[in-house]
Amino acid sequence: MCFAHSKGARFVLKGNVSVKKIIDPKKRAAWIAEKVNLTKTQYMDGINLDIEQTIRPHTPEYYALTDLVKETTEAFHKEIPGSQVIKLLLLTTSHQV
């Protein structure tokens, strides 16, 4: 056990990705797998999804973000029991066409 963990500290990976890059389910799955593996190899305790982007409602990006949060949470909890998945989503919605 490392010094920080011995003192009760928890460390999470910052997960930031362009939502446009994770519309494709295969690319999204690859991104999630990469973050799970990095978290495991670095002995971290989870991930902080820090997404700050403009997303228009009912667009492919809108639904991809929902899927990203769901799938990331499922993958982390399966692969790293007890892990934290923190969602910090600061979105600006635009109704302009």
From TrEMBL:
Residues 1-97 form the GH18 domain. SUPFAM superfamilies: (Trans)glycosidases. It comes from the Eukaryota. InterPro entries: GH (IPR017853), GH18_Domain-Containing (IPR051887), Glyco_hydro18_cat (IPR001223), Glyco_hydro_18_chit_AS (IPR001579). Keywords: Glycosidase, Hydrolase. PANTHER family: DI-N-ACETYLCHITOBIASE. This is GH18 domain-containing protein. It comes from Staurois parvus. The lineage of its organism: Eukaryota, Metazoa, Chordata, Craniata, Vertebrata.
